[in-house]
């Protein structure tokens, strides 16, 4: 082979179907149990299943999202209700008190860099028609209350990058403190999906918390630092980027409007979004911000819940539904039911992000739990 280097393989395939079955090729079915809160359409659920886990149920407030979730994932336990009510239940199944992972993605618009941030903190709001109003920035703590009640071995919570920026960082301290009071040690990671086998630049924060009694029962007791007893968890990923040209389908996708096509026709190489073109063409630099160009030789930017968030640079079209699915690592045969595909995808965790994290936790923590090995031997 001379001096040629082999291209590093991806752990999981971004182009997949539900009909392919679980887990992903090359991954063992170990069956550790997960319950998902704020489950949306099941982005994280699919990730756990690809990594060999058994997701036994979900909690979701949005009826449309929940319909899509139950249609595609058929959970054993389904709770369509506000988490503030769910956490108060005294009739929860025994299986929920024996979880390996409690997963959740508390609504994050209060912390998003694209939102009102501080101006929206502490105010009641709702995402969609039919939902109850909630103070979005306190739902994280309702989720932690549930963790304290159920006492799973591991708690994983996903949120936006904005949680680590500016005044929002104060919430990180409060979240860490709340997890500690609930009986967990935790760490926070900022992860970029583009090095995790996802054809998208999507930065997200992940809290990973381990129940206190588990820390002493995991072999190889190297810890994060002298002040944190959590065993080391390696979440550094370096898989090669998947550029948009690898997945693009020429001629597909919704056409731009006549007005938008006129703006698009004045684009120049290097323009990142429509605001660049608009600023030069019409002297309106703030118009079109958030409508990003995608280049064949680059990784696609973050897919939001808006259908028009990404435009092909060399073709006056938005991404097709199948291109969006691949960029978000959703299965191409996913059934969206009454939900708009772009909205459901944009509100979901890319399945492969969760699959990568879940696989590392299984390999580095669950495979090294000493007391479970002793019980198995007896």
- Beta-strand percent range: 15-25%
CATH class of the largest domain: Alpha Beta
Which structural category fits the helices and strands? Answer: alpha/beta
Number of helices in the DSSP assignment = 12
Computed CA radius of gyration, to the nearest angstrom = 21 Å
Q: Number of DSSP strands?
A: 13
Major beta-sheet overview: 7 strands, mixed
Task: Give the count of structural domains.
Answer: 2
Question: What is the second-level CATH architecture of the largest domain?
Answer: 3-Layer(aba) Sandwich
Morphology call: globular
CATH homologous superfamily assignment of the largest domain: Vaccinia Virus protein VP39
Low-confidence stretches: 1-6, 112-125
CATH topology of the largest domain: Rossmann fold
| SSE string | EHEHEHEEEHEHEEHEEHHEEHHHH
Q: Strand order, main sheet: write it out.
A: 3-2-1-4-7-9-8
What does the average pLDDT come to?
A: 88
User: What is the helix fraction of residues, given as a range?
Assistant: 25-40%
How widely separated are the two ends?
A: 50 Å
């Amino acid at each position: 082979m001379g001096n040629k280097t082999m291209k590093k393989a991806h752990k999981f395939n971004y182009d997949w179907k539900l009909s392919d079955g679980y887990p992903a090729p090359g991954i063992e079915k170990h069956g550790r149990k997960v319950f998902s809160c704020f489950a949306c359409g099941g982005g994280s659920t699919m990730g756990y299943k690809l990594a060999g886990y058994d997701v036994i149920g979900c909690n979701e407030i949005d009826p449309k999202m929940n319909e899509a979730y139950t249609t595609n994932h058929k959970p054993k336990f389904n709770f369509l209700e506000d988490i503030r009510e769910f956490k108060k239940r005294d009739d929860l199944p025994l299986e929920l008190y024996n979880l390996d992972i409690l997963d959740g993605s508390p609504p994050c618009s209060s912390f998003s860099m694209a939102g009102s941030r501080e101006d929206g903190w502490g105010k009641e709001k709702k995402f969609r028609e039919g939902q109850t109003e909630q103070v979005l920035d306190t739902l994280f703590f309702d989720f932690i209350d549930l963790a304290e009640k159920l006492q799973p071995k591991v708690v994983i919570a996903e949120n936006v990058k904005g949680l680590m920026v500016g005044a929002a960082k104060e919430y990180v301290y409060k979240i860490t403190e709340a997890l500690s009071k609930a009986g967990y040690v935790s760490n926070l990671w900022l992860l970029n999906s583009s090095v995790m086998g996802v054809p998208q630049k999507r930065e997200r924060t992940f809290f990973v918390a381990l129940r206190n009694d588990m820390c002493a029962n995991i072999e190889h007791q190297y810890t994060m630092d002298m002040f944190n007893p959590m065993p080391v968890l390696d979440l550094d990923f370096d898989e090669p980027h998947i550029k948009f040209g690898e997945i693009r389908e020429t001629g597909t996708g919704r056409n731009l409007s006549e007005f938008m096509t006129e703006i698009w026709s004045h684009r120049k190489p290097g323009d990142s979004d429509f605001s660049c073109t608009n600023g030069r063409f019409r002297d309106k630099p703030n118009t079109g911000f958030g409508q990003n160009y995608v280049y064949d030789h680059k990784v696609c930017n973050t897919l939001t819940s808006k259908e028009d968030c990404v435009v092909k640079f060399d073709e006056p079209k938005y991404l097709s539904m199948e291109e969006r699915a691949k960029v978000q690592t959703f299965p191409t045969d996913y059934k969206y039911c009454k939900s708009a595909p772009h909205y459901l995808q944009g509100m979901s965790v890319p399945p492969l992000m969760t699959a990568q994290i879940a696989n590392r936790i299984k390999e580095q923590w669950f495979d090294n739990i000493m007391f479970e090995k002793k019980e198995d031997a007896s």
